[in-house]
Design a protein that fits this description.
Chain lengths: ~325, ~325
């Protein structure tokens, strides 16, 4: 396997009138080609901002402060905007959660797919249209030749999401970012969509960066998982390791809040408290106000992401780091 | 069964184009249809004025013995010509003058709204796309200053600055009518700028703009190819409603003697001339131009309201 994306020490902040929002605060992770990486966390934990930072689409008052985003070995943060535009949509593309507002209401589905092809390929008008029909067929839209000239509001939610995916894969991207692609859809459609994305991923050998807050989706779809909390990665491991041996108290809390299938749970467990204000983060560990395991050190000293076993990294003082396995960064 | 009919309708709906959908929504409102017909009637008058007018609008005809101009409707001159709507104080046919007056009125209104739209939409689009920057600040403060004047006062001031005759700018000669168009366009362009800026700002926040950026589109492309089609409906509505205001402003300027100059037939000017005869019982002299102006304003307003209802896709879907 080849490394597709490596994010090193990414810091993205938003300078609002109320103060500085530390949306992403030192992220380190890597993604192999044809691997699916799941990024899990509550709303406001920095998942989407991480994705937009990779696309370099952070807008005022936001700024990428530091770090490196290596895509196939090249730092995207060093690239001029012109070159970035060539990468967006062609090398890296993204699908949003709300398919209705992500599609332009005044243009037909076909016109919108053809437009992406126009930016990145030298295909003729006719060839672009034909490719749009093929793409709609590839994402499992029935009667693609007819649907291609429909407007977004004439399609159902699931079909719109399929059309968006068709648009995203139109130029065979190497990396596909999915930002909660199925939140607006029901469970059956969700399963279909993930089945589709899985097929496309294998067919086109794409890396997938999946943002979600649904741990069950991650379990079935991803190979690698990142848990984010208040702008920081708190745990990273492969899927088996994370579900078999979760270490961070937040991860444990997330896993416990999945309703069990077999037992009759009297009451669904939840994590007490809420996500901290990203402008006034608590001193020490960000999770300390909601954590049951805190000691003195948690309140004063920020934990670093440290490797506890090969490929399994956790940022928590209360997790014993085996001797000899050092921190991977200062 | 009820739901079967509904699902059948939905299937039909799925194959309609945006234009068909618009027409379906527009047709439902009878008042806006009436507005549309009034506007069509005016367009017909304006386009076919030379064919419709029975006489030359500037030609003066003599009243027969025992009568004086202005003559009431259905009277005849010395040579037996019939004047359906009577004559004015110079013995000119009021019907012909009204038809030609409508033509000039619409020329000025359409011309000035087009220029105002071009100016305002450009300003608003730039301000909206660069919202929060000094460009936006500069443009919008200029717009605020212009909007703080009552529009007629601003128009009068501009006429005062430009004069009423024709002016020569380099190789171009600006005739009286073009100048009136420019004055009204400048007066009303800020309103288009406001609407356009608001719409662009609103559309910019939508995901499809982010999606366009993500697919590698440049700023200019996003503004022109993605956002612009979505701004057309509100701009059309604004233009239609502004047509009504422009008709009023054009007529007011002419009435005040600051607009179109005699002998060019103009409804506002006719009203001004008719003023002296109002208390002499010459009702037709006032009623014809006054009625035409009122009906035009009514027509454009009804049409504008209807367009607003029919072009708002969210409202359309709620009803459909």
């Amino acid at each position: 396997m080849r490394e597709l994306l490596r994010v090193e020490g990414l810091v993205t902040r938003f300078y609002t009138d109320e103060g500085v929002v530390k949306a992403v605060d030192g992220s380190w992770f890597a993604l192999e080609a044809d691997e699916a990486l799941g990024v899990v966390g509550e709303s406001g934990s920095g998942k989407t901002v991480t994705a937009l930072s990779i696309m370099r689409l952070i807008e005022n008052p936001g700024r990428i402060e530091s770090g490196r985003i290596l895509f196939r070995g090249e730092d995207l943060l060093e690239k001029p905007e012109r070159e970035m535009r060539r990468i967006r949509g062609k090398e890296i593309s993204m699908v949003f959660q709300d398919s209705l507002s992500s599609l332009n209401p005044t243009l037909t589905i076909g016109a919108q797919i053809a437009r992406v092809l126009k930016y990145h390929t030298r295909l003729t008008r006719r060839a672009r249209w034909q490719r749009a029909v093929k793409l709609l067929e590839a994402v499992g839209i029935p009667e693609p030749a007819k649907r291609v000239s429909h407007y977004p509001h004439q399609l159902s939610g699931g079909m719109r999401q399929r059309a968006l995916i068709a648009m995203a894969i139109s130029c065979n991207p190497k990396l596909l970012i999915l930002d909660e692609p199925t939140t607006a859809l029901d469970v059956t459609i969700e399963a279909q969509i993930f089945g589709l994305i899985g097929e496309l991923k294998d067919e086109f050998r794409m890396g997938v960066f999946l943002i979600t807050h649904d741990l069950s989706v991650v379990a079935s779809f991803c190979q690698q998982v990142i848990i984010m909390y208040a702008g920081k990665i708190v745990e990273e491991a492969d899927v088996q390791e994370l579900y078999g041996n979760p270490l961070h108290p937040y991860t444990l809390g997330l896993l416990r809040s999945i309703p069990p299938l077999e037992e009759e749970a009297e009451r669904l467990e939840s994590i007490p408290g809420e996500v901290p204000d990203l402008i006034n983060l608590p001193p020490g560990c960000n999770f300390s106000p909601r954590c049951a395991l805190t000691d003195e050190r948690c309140w004063h000293e920020e934990p670093e992401l440290a490797e506890v076993s090969p490929g399994h990294r956790v940022a928590c003082h209360r997790v014993a780091v085996p001797v000899g396995v050092g921190e991977i960064h200062g | 069964m009820a739901w079967e009919i509904q699902s059948g309708e939905y299937e039909l709906g799925a194959h309609r184009t945006l234009l068909q959908e618009f027409w379906r929504n527009f047709r439902r409102n009878k008042l806006s249809l009436i507005g549309g017909f009034i506007v069509l009637f005016y367009a017909f008058l304006a386009i076919f004025a030379p064919l419709l007018a029975p006489y030359d609008p500037i030609e003066q005809y003599d009243a027969p013995r025992g009568m004086r101009n202005p003559m009431p409707p259905l009277s005849r001159d010395v040579d037996g010509r019939l004047f359906l709507l009577g004559t004015d104080k110079f013995g000119r046919d009021i019907l012909s003058r009204a038809i030609y007056g409508t033509r000039t009125l619409l020329q000025v209104a359409v011309g000035s709204i087009s220029i105002a739209m071009l100016l305002g939409v450009t300003m608003g689009a730039i301000a909206g796309y660069r919202a929060g920057t000094w460009v936006d600040e500069l443009l919008m403060r200029a717009v605020d200053i212009m909007l703080s004047f009552p529009s007629l006062v601003l128009a009068i001031a501009l006429v005062g600055a430009f004069g009423i005759g024709k002016i020569q700018i380099g190789p171009f000669t600006l005739s009286n009518i073009v100048k009136i168009m420019l004055v009204i366009a400048i007066t009303y362009s800020p309103r288009f700028a406001r609407v356009m800026r608001a719409v662009v700002l609103q559309e910019m926040g939508k995901d499809y703009v982010a999606a366009a950026k993500i697919s590698g589109a440049s700023s200019a492309r996003i503004l022109l190819a993605e956002i612009f089609p979505n701004t057309i409906p509100p701009i059309i509505v604004q233009a239609s409603l502004m047509m009504a205001t422009t008709v009023l402003t054009t007529s007011s300027l002419s009435f005040l003697g600051l607009g179109l100059q005699p002998p060019r037939p103009s409804l506002g000017l006719m009203l001004n001339e008719a003023r002296d005869y109002l208390f002499w019982g010459a009702w037709w002299y006032v009623m014809v131009p006054g009625g035409l102006i009122t009906l035009a304003i009514l027509g454009f307003n009804l049409l504008g309201d209807g367009l607003r209802d029919a072009l708002d896709p969210r409202q359309a879907r709620r009803r459909g």
